[in-house]
Design goal:
The protein is mainly beta. It has one helix at residues 114-136, and strands at 2-8, 12-25, 36-49, 53-70, 85-101. It starts with a strand and ends in a 22-residue tail after the last helix. Keywords: Membrane, Signal.
Length: 158
């Protein structure tokens, strides 16, 4: 999400907004090749009064797959072979919505909710670093440690 704000006349905010959604497309049976990256973009410009909430949408993802299997030989028997086969259908749909509340921040003004954001950010950082540490200590084979991956600590404190 990229937002470029512009202050206009009369406590109005002009916002240039670009929202991008990226997903990997994995192909069944393909190995040794990195998955394709699929991206969708929404770009818009809006002018709103100070303090207004904007709802962005339009990025939708639909995943569908079909598959099946059978017990060798038994699944090929006419008439009763269907008892030894299975069919799988998968369908998933998701929509991405983003809520943006636009405020004009003037020098010396207190930012509402800033302390709450700092607390949540610190908790998220601690959780991320905990899982990052666990991943670095993961053993591919019992007793054999993998070489650490760079960076060892992604979120360095300043």
């Amino acid at each position: 999400l990229t937002i470029t704000p512009h202050i206009a006349k009369g406590n109005q905010l002009g916002l240039d907004i670009k929202m991008t959604r990226s997903d990997f497309r994995f192909e069944e049976g393909v190995t040794g090749k990195p998955p394709d990256l699929l991206t969708s973009d929404v770009t818009t410009k809006v002018t709103v009064p100070d303090g207004t909430t904007i709802i962005l949408g339009g990025l939708e993802k639909i995943d569908q797959a079909k598959g099946g299997g059978k017990i060798p030989l038994l699944g090929d028997i006419p008439l009763i072979g269907g008892l030894f086969r299975n069919i799988r259908n998968f369908s998933e749909q998701s929509r991405l919505y983003v809520f943006v509340k636009a405020h004009i921040l003037r020098p010396g003004e207190e930012v509402p909710g800033e302390s709450d954001i700092e607390v949540v950010s610190a908790k998220n950082r601690a959780t991320f670093e905990k899982y990052e540490k666990e991943m670095q200590e993961y053993e591919d084979w019992p007793g054999i440690k993998s070489k650490p991956m760079d960076p060892l600590k992604v979120l360095e404190t300043e």
